[in-house]
Design a protein that fits this description.
CATH architecture of the largest domain: 3-Layer(bba) Sandwich
CATH class of the largest domain: Alpha Beta
Shape: globular
Protein name: NAD(P)/FAD-dependent oxidoreductase
Number of strands: 19
CATH topology of the largest domain: FAD/NAD(P)-binding domain
Structural class: alpha/beta
Strand content: 15-25%
Radius of gyration: 22 Å
Number of helices: 12
Strand order of the largest sheet: 7-6-15-16-17-14-18
Number of domains: 3
Amino acid sequence: MTENFDAVVIGAGAGGLFTAARFQHAGLRTLVVERLDRVGGRASTHDIDGFKVNVGAIVIERGGITEETFAEVGARFEVREPKPPILYRIKGKDVDVSSGGWGLLLGKLTKQGAKLLGGLGAARTDDGLPDHEQTTADWLRKYTKNESVHGIFNNMIASIFAVTAEELPARVFLTYMTRKSAFKRFGFCPEGTIGVWRALAERIEELGGEIWLDAEAEGVEVADGLVRSVRVRRGGETVDVPCSVLVSDVGPAATVGLVGEEHLGEEHVRMVRERDRPCAMLAVNFASREPLIKAQGMLSFAKTRRLCYVANFTATCPEMAPEGWNLYVASSVPRPAVGPFDEEQEMALLLEDLHDEIEGFADARILSQVVRRDEWPPQRAVAGFDMPHTTPIPNLWNVGDGVKEYANGGTTACAETAKIVADQILTGDRVPA
């Protein structure tokens, strides 16, 4: 190798690109190594007959750390917000609660709305949060047995965290809803979600960094307790890339495989094995000539077998489909969302819901049916059971949704972990592993 890089980032997913952009903006010459032929990872986009079909994450948060990162590094940020962002189907009607919030939503669902609203309010203080063992479903049962309330909460949790209310600690959910962004503002990119990452990748390269696509990291050299180089297979050749800092966006388990268990110690390896619990999610991408839902953004449901939401892309981003077509995605979370489940049965339940809930779905064109799990999960760890971003090797770090901060999720969590890791590296403020 004739080129030298200060930092190498493995993986051009959301966490990797956010980190690389921060490094390059701060003056660290950075290389991003990506085994796929495109950026974005599990938040990227495929073209299917002119339809821009997202392979994972479909919405990008507005007004939070994601948008702030783009502004800080000088990258373009084209994300269009639907108005209203979400409608809730309650008793056959699509309800907009954007101006009334939780009070209006709960009031539409149950007579116990005020009591439940009080429970949410109490969670704003540490004393009002339940212990980590209590699930969100159990917490809800203290206030109501109303099936629609449980359905709304379960589908909301599934949409954000890719697990069921039975699998998510109530403490995580309540912390997210009362102290985090709670995804109040979000939108779609007219290029598909990959457009957001292309913009970030362009900025990295404008600042002097490099992004190698179709390039796979095959191993990491460790000597005297530090990462020294990364072995990369690219264009039929293998090269060793020296680096002072290595950041992995491929998940803690895959990082262990690249580095070698012998360099990370038994305690770290055992922790990764115990917490490596990827979630699962199903999606049906479909299109129609006629509009199938009124929601400009997302439509969520109170009572379904599995269907969590349907997102309407072309109401705000007609560029995502050929002229005259409407593009949608419907998602569900299997039961259980963590561990083995019957893929065929879960997809059948999702399709049954779509036929029941979406008038005209029988005539829609199904573009793809996708099950995301294992090596391609919606999230690499259940929220509340995340792994640390540090490792026993001082110049090796993890970013992404496997090491997200408590009670966060999705691409927003990736932006947050990237900022934390980049700040600690750039300031030299290393947190002990």
